[in-house]
Design brief:
By secondary structure, this protein is an alpha+beta fold. The chain has 3 domains: about 30-165, Beta-Lactamase; about 180-255, no CATH class; about 350-500, Heat Shock Protein 90 (2-Layer Sandwich). The chain is built from 12 helices and 15 strands. The strands form 4 sheets. A 5-stranded mixed β-sheet has the order 10-12-13-15-14, with helices on one face. Helix 1 (about 5-90) packs antiparallel against helix 4. The protein starts with a helix and ends with a strand. About 20% of the residues are buried.
Length: about 500
């Protein structure tokens, strides 16, 4: 198993653990939210049941008061009939009639003649009975309440005006206070639940709680709000009797609504935390990798220096012994190549000096160097659009890139095939495609092959293409990627180089 494969395996394990932790956290948060929602709904149900019971109490009390009011009106009618009998019917004994008249002492009454002149009063405030203005004020009030009852006194018509007794008036005030208290408690006891109490037509707000008043002023907004509340919960009907109905609309509290989105927010926060952690880890890892790269490169250059100096000395000895000049020439090329490699390693970690170089000439030199050192069954072809194809490069490092790409292509072809190099001028950049006829790569590996540790060979560290990408993108500010590749059809690497320094 390659180093890259082992890394991938551990990445998948860590990713699975991270997703597991997030999933458990998300599930537990959702569970807590559902518990809170269930508890709040239970409270709302108890609250709605309490409203219905209080509504029944109000309805019963109201019915009782209606019966009391009807009883008082009947008492006035009985008193009127008794007065009529006493004044217009001849009886042997008026004791019973007089008892009825005398017992009706709790209902304030005023008697007037045809000219609306007050002839008699009954059960008014004793302290103000001699005040004409008070009597007249009470008469006007009585006229506004009930129609007068006609009484005949000795063939003369008189009219009786009356109002509710003081006891009934006080009880009626208690009834009004009870209804108002019921309305206010309906809203207050709703706790944090937004609630609206409307009339029977559902177009007028009687009271509200935990709702922005501006929303209630606009009729269109009110309709939308009530419609939304109806979708969340069926409105509670309050029957106050005689066809009078009110409706209580309510919905989930603001806190509960926010809690619904808490798991999602938590998920986003955890995801953001993981992303930041990954970026920091990736940054530290790249920084550490850079230090390793630089350290290894500097040490390699240092280690190559000693044997390289020895080889140059041996070359001088071989020349003195009249060794074949052709052999001496090829060895000199290899020593020069080693010097170039040493120079390359020594430049890792420092800012390279980029110069405008003729890419066509550099590629021709690389082809001439590789041709005698590779299988004769491998053909390398250079195709260009002209002679003057310059780009900003460091010759030593760029040669390293070409060397790595050539070696990978030759290995992919198993020592037999073709390598085509196509250089194209693209205005501000120079584009170079290196195409081989090797075994190719599946699409899933087009980006993976540039990662450190990746290799398809049985031997090797998997650092060649990673180093190539670093040289092109980090040092030359260009681009390198797999332009085209398929299994069994070869691979095309594309390099994009700048003509000017960015």
């Amino acid at each position: 198993m390659s180093i890259y494969s082992r890394k991938q395996k551990w990445k998948l394990v860590l990713l699975f653990l991270a997703l597991l932790i997030i999933g458990v956290s998300f599930w537990y948060s959702s569970y807590i939210v559902q518990r809170i929602r269930s508890e709040e709904h239970k409270k709302v149900e108890l609250w709605s049941k309490a409203i219905k019971k209080r509504a029944k109490l109000v309805q019963y009390t109201k019915t009782l008061f209606e019966q009391l009011e009807e009883g008082e009106q009947k008492s006035v009618e009985i008193w009127t009939d008794a007065m009529d009998i006493q004044n217009n019917v001849e009886l042997d004994d008026y004791t019973f009639v007089q008892k009825i008249i005398q017992n009706q002492t709790n209902i304030p009454m005023i008697l007037v003649d045809d000219d609306d002149q007050i002839t008699s009063t009954r059960n008014l405030d004793a302290d103000k009975i001699n005040d004409p203005a008070y009597i007249q004020q009470q008469l006007e009030y009585m006229k506004s309440l009930y129609p007068p009852m006609e009484i005949v006194f000795f063939n003369e018509k008189q009219y009786l005006y009356y109002m509710d007794s003081r006891l009934f008036t006080e009880l009626k005030q208690v009834m009004d206070d009870l209804i108002n208290t019921f309305i206010s408690e309906t809203v207050i006891n709703s706790a944090s639940v937004p609630v609206v109490l409307t009339n029977g037509a559902q177009d007028e707000v009687i009271s509200s709680g935990n709702i922005d008043e501006d929303e209630l002023q606009n009729s269109n907004r009110l309709k939308k709000m009530l419609a939304g509340m109806s979708e969340s919960n069926n409105p509670i009907e309050i029957d106050l009797g005689e066809g009078q109905k009110n409706y209580v609309f309510y919905e989930d509290s603001v806190i509960l609504t926010q809690l619904k989105y808490f798991p999602l927010v938590q998920f986003l926060v955890i995801g953001l935390f993981l992303m930041i952690s990954y970026l920091l880890f990736s940054t530290f890892r790249k920084s550490e990798q850079n230090q390793v790269w630089v350290g290894m490169a500097k040490e390699t250059a240092h280690q190559l220096g000693t044997p390289l100096s020895a080889l140059m000395a041996w070359m001088d000895i071989l020349k003195m012994k009249n060794v074949d000049e052709e052999i001496i020439g090829e060895m000199s090329k290899d020593i020069a190549r080693l010097e170039t490699v040493t120079e390359r390693f020594s430049k890792i970690g420092s800012e390279p000096d980029l110069k405008s170089e003729n890419i066509k000439e550099i590629m021709q030199e690389s082809i001439e160097y590789f041709t005698p050192r590779i299988s004769k069954k491998v053909k390398i072809t250079l195709m260009t659009e002209g002679k003057d194809l310059h780009a900003m490069i460091n010759t030593s490092l760029f040669g390293w890139v070409i060397e790595n790409l050539f070696k990978n292509a030759i290995d992919a072809m198993a020592g037999q095939g073709s390598i085509d190099i196509i250089i194209t001028d693209k205005d501000s950049v120079l584009q170079m495609d290196i195409k081989d006829s090797g075994k190719g790569l599946p699409p899933s590996l087009h980006k993976t092959i540039f990662q450190p540790g990746f290799t398809t060979k049985k031997r090797g560290w998997g650092l060649g293409l990673s180093l190539t990408k670093r040289i092109i993108e980090s040092y030359h500010h260009g681009k390198i990627f797999v332009c085209d590749s398929a299994v069994g059809k070869g691979t095309t690497f594309r390099l994009v180089l700048n003509k000017k320094v960015e």
